[in-house]
Amino acid sequence: MALHDPSSERRERVLETATREFARRGYEHASLNSIIRACGMSKSSFYHFFDSKAALFETVVTEAMRLLGREIDVPAPRELAGPHFWEHVTRLVTELLELAGRGSWFAEAGKLFYSADSPVEHSPALRGAISSVRDWLDEALEVGRECGAVRDDLPSSLQASLVFAALRCLDDWSLHHLHEYSERERERIARAQLETLYRMLAREPGTAGNR
């Protein structure tokens, strides 16, 4: 039987509240006082967990990435190689879109990656997360090109930059809007997004339904 840990619960409440505050108002305009009041804490209790807004933001990003790893089994790029490349990609993108459509605090945390004033230059956690995603994508595209699933008529660096920009656009929109639609509409939009990626990248003409 797990022991009740009120300290851990308070910390989680602060992180969830802070995530929504950062997502709604941006990093610069987010108010620690508003977060503290919403959590029903004293300032001394808050500073027991986090000594600054920057430290709080870092923890939010780190925790979000940890939860992403727990929620979704992201394969190593080399595991995508072979005739089932697009099946693996479809599964991964579908799971990510489903997560974005839940409207949970985790989805709110995802918005921080696209906020205009997110402190990328001063946030090692945010820089590291973005770099990890880009490295994974670069290697996945290279695997796809090697196994014949991804077109290779563009320089690999240009293709990677185009796809990274497209995925950021799709992810940003999904995090902000996908939860506004019914489950049936979300499924339709998800299929359309997958079709868009497939048309951009597939070596041979076709449709997502024929993968």
3D structure, described in words:
The chain is an all-alpha fold and 211 residues long. The protein has a single domain (6-210), classed as Tetracycline Repressor, domain 2. It is built from nine helices and no strands. It has helices at residues 6-29, 32-39, 43-49, 53-71, 85-101, 105-111, 124-146, 156-177, 183-201. The longest helix is centred in the first third of the chain and has 24 residues, at 6-29.
Strand proportion, as a percent range, falls in: under 5%
Shape: elongated
The beta-strand count equals 0
Q: Compute the gyration radius: what is it?
A: 19 Å
N→C terminal distance: 46 Å
Residue-averaged pLDDT: 86
> What is the count of helical runs?
9
CATH superfamily: Tetracycline Repressor, domain 2
Elements, N to C (H/E): HHHHHHHHH
Counting structural domains, the number is 1
- Largest β sheet strand count, sense and barrel closure: none
Low-confidence stretches: 1-5, 206-211
Based on helices, strands and strand pairing, what is the structural class?
mainly alpha
CATH topology: Tetracycline Repressor, domain 2
**CATH architect. name:** Orthogonal Bundle
What is the percent of helical residues?
Answer: 55-70%
CATH uppermost class: Mainly Alpha
Summarize the structure.
Keywords: DNA-binding, Transcription, Transcription regulation. It is built from 9 helices and no strands.
